[in-house]
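Q: Hi! First time doing this. I have a protein sequence and I read that you can turn it into a structure. Is that right? Here it is:
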Amino acid sequence: MHRSVDLPAIAGALFLMCGSCASSDARWSHAEAERPSGDEADLIRTIERTRLRALVDADIDTARRLHAEDFQLINPLGGSLSKEQYLDDVASGELYYVSWDAEQIEVRVFSDVAAIRYRSQLEIIVAGQKIPRQRYWHTDLYEKHDGQWQVV
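A: Yes, that's right. Below is the predicted 3D structure, encoded as structure tokens:
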């Protein structure tokens, strides 16, 4: 079953989000976080870049492995998509990432949970409507499940 995408809401939210992100240039301090070993932080960065590449390439098998079963995407308007809804939209082309280029990925690790934050250049087509390449902030949480990091 395919659900319709609220294109005007998503497009408006992306433009609003971009406008607010462009004005913020705050730096993340690692002062309160457990300093990740270079290996652990680098592993999480590699996984995130692999996840982004899988979404751009619509490589759903890889994307499924990197998204936890309880993954939830919250859009800027507060709407949510489950893992299946999100990946189904990517697989169908309803949500098409033309490009998603991450800049420096900051990582904070707290035992089996990690938070990442970065800026990216993102170009996307939603329900056939092109959203031009712009700069966005991203914040994601990862959890370690059975020894493997997955985005939640």
